[in-house]
Backbone:
């Protein structure tokens, strides 16, 4: 499935998914809002999934559904869940109809987009680390004597171009790393 990367689609993806502990996830409240369900019904569905998983001796429901509480305007703690992509798949299977299918596909696209953003971030971090090593080695070698110093002078231009290319690539993903709507 090709992910739509238009500005409008990316804005929607940011509303649907986020990073929590380095993993892509969404929340029970976001799912309730988008699928037109009450939050209490979504919570009840999650509780049934967790109970079924526990009765079948699956021990990873905590990886898919992590409970947290958020304080509402009246100061009351409101129960919610952070939900992984796999947890979303289990929960969304319970919803049917054309509108539900449309939101299932949007959430899938959003999770795929987030995974691609994380891959790009990791690749950028790798490029930066490699460049830093190369630049440090060039500086160290060029600080000793004449021949190496001359080589360093010629390397500077190439390193500056490489640095500019890396910065341009990283700049494109800075919006993602800025604030991907953390839950808590």
Residues:
């Amino acid at each position: 499935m090709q992910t739509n990367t238009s500005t409008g689609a990316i804005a929607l993806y940011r509303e649907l998914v986020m990073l929590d502990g380095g993993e892509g996830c969404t929340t029970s409240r976001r799912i309730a809002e988008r699928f037109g369900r009450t939050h209490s019904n979504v919570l009840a569905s999650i509780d049934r999934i967790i109970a079924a998983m526990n009765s079948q001796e699956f021990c990873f429901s905590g990886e898919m559904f992590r409970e947290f509480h958020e304080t509402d305007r009246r100061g009351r703690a409101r129960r919610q869940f952070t939900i992984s992509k796999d947890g979303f798949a289990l929960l969304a299977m319970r919803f049917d109809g054309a509108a539900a299918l449309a939101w299932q596909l949007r959430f899938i696209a959003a999770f795929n987009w987030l995974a691609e953003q994380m891959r790009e971030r990791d690749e950028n971090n790798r490029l930066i680390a490699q460049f830093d090593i190369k630049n440090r080695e060039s500086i160290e070698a060029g600080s000793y004597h004449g021949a190496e110093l001359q080589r360093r002078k010629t390397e500077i231009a190439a390193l500056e171009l490489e640095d500019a290319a890396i910065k341009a690539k990283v700049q494109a993903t800075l919006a993602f790393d800025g604030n991907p709507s953390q839950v808590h």
The chain has one domain: 7-178.
